[in-house]
Amino acid sequence: MRLRCAVLDDFQSAAATAADWSPVADRVEVVAFTEHFASEDALAAALADFDVVVTLRERVAFPGSLLARLPRLKLLIASGMRNSVIDFAAAERGGVTVCGTASAPTPPTELTWALLLGLARGLVPESTALRTGGPWQSTVGADLHGSRLGILGLGKIGGRVARIALAFGMEVTAWSRHLTKERAEECGVELAPSKEELLTGSDFVSVHLALSDRTEGLIGAAELALMKPTAFLVNTSRAAIVDQDALLAALREGRIAGAGVDVFDVEPLPADHPMRTAPRLLATPHLGYVSRANYATYYGQAVEDIAAYLAGSPVRPLGRGNGSGAN
Q: How many C-beta neighbours within 10 Å does residue 103 have?
């Protein structure tokens, strides 16, 4: 019997062309969904007749309550090798094999700089004005050379962001709860004594932390109040690390110069979500890992995962030890 495979959140209809599905085509029917299922009921109904599900990063949660409603599901593939929204214990109880794929840190690094540069030079308002008959030059750009970038989290992505900042001639400080002086020196940056001092002294702040109980709400109203009124905040990591209401208030009241955001508390954003109309905000629809090379890896290795499962030797297994990760 042919298995059925659902590919979730294929917004760009890219899954079919990003990889070669022919190795499993004779044994697996692949159905891509281009619309997001916003509720557990909608997911349970849509996936009831599928044996395999491919999901991108942590876009869709698979709690035990949902897995219990999918008795036909045997293989769940999530891009990346860490995932905090899958109930691995419930999957194991239900006989569901969970596998992952490789994932490159370079696309979110590059998007971070796209947002930071766009904010610094007012690219969106200036481009919009030029194309709509608006004023010729209405902003004065912020200089990167000689300014200070504060990085929260100096892992694979944060370290790359730091090296690019140094190439721009920026001063760079970094902080996280467990960041060591040795790691900071390895990246050529200064270890900030505290989160508060990093925020107070930075002209740009970029978030590159994994979401956990300790990082949720790490940047709230009190922390945003420490930032310079001329400073910019960039978050391409996880929305919950920055208090969304506090950020909206800071943007509306002009207490910071602006923010670049790629992650949100609800995704996709509802049409009436306040982030869609917030001032001083440069926002993108969670594009951090959306690149041709990454999609080729995600879907190409998803095919490999399916083929290996069918051969009785699953590869790249995910479990409770892979429970969290940034972006």
A: 21
Which region among 25-39, 50-64, 220-234, 311-325 has the lowest average model confidence (pLDDT)?
Answer: 311-325
Quick one: 106-283 is in which CATH superfamily? Answer: NAD(P)-binding Rossmann-like Domain (3.40.50.720)
Task: Say what the pLDDT of residue 324 is.
Answer: 45
Q: How many CA atoms lie within 13 A of 236 on its CB side?
A: 24
Q: Which CATH class is domain 3-103+290-322?
A: alpha beta
pLDDT per residue as tens digits for the range 269-298: 999 999 999 999 999 999 999 999 999 999
Backbone angles phi and psi of 63, in degrees to 5: -75, 170
Q: What are the catalytic residues? A: 238, 267, 286
Confidence class for position 321, pLDDT limits 50, 70, 90: low
The span from the CA of 73 to the CA of 94, in Å, is: 9
pLDDT at 282: 98
The amino acid at residue 182 is E
When pLDDT is averaged across residues 164-185 and rounded to a whole number, the result is 97
Distance CA 291, CA 295 (A): 6
Dihedral, 280, 285, 288, 294 alpha carbons, nearest 10 = -160
| Whether the domain at 3-103+290-322 and the domain at 106-283 fall into the same CATH topology | yes
What per-residue string of b and e applies to 8-20 under the rule 16 or more CB within 10 Å gives b?
bbbbeebbeebbe
- Say yes or no to pLDDT of 48 above 80: yes
The amino acid occupying position 307 is A
Whole-angstrom distance, CA of residue 113 vs CA of residue 101: 25
